[in-house]
Write a structure and sequence with these properties.
Elements: H1 2-12, H2 26-35, E1 40-41, H3 42-49, H4 53-65, E2 70-73, E3 80-83
Antiparallel strand pairs: 1-3, 2-3
Length: 89
């Protein structure tokens, strides 16, 4: 009898809501920006993430330190950062 009461109480308990999906972190967003075919300029990153230029350079350094190969392209009028092909994650 006690087992039936426990089962009945357990079935009446509210089910937990599914976990909410968190928005991507700024580091993930930076990685996506750098993984684009054309890469990203510091101005584009600054506009997207709201970071200061020194924060952008520090975050890129941390990504490099974690093993991601990031190239600095100075061939055009603006400097572009992009992930070296074969390193997309």
């Amino acid at each position: 009898m006690a087992e039936q009461l426990i089962e009945a109480a357990a079935s009446d308990a509210p089910k937990p809501a599914p976990p909410k999906r968190l928005p991507p972190s700024k580091t993930e967003t930076l990685r996506k920006l750098l993984s684009r075919r054309t890469g990203a300029t510091a101005a584009q990153i600054q506009k997207q993430l709201g970071w200061q230029p020194h924060t952008i350079r520090a975050a890129i350094s941390r990504l490099r330190y974690s093993g991601l190969a990031i190239d600095l392209d100075r061939s055009g009028k603006v400097v572009r950062y992009h992930v070296v092909s074969g390193q997309d994650q």
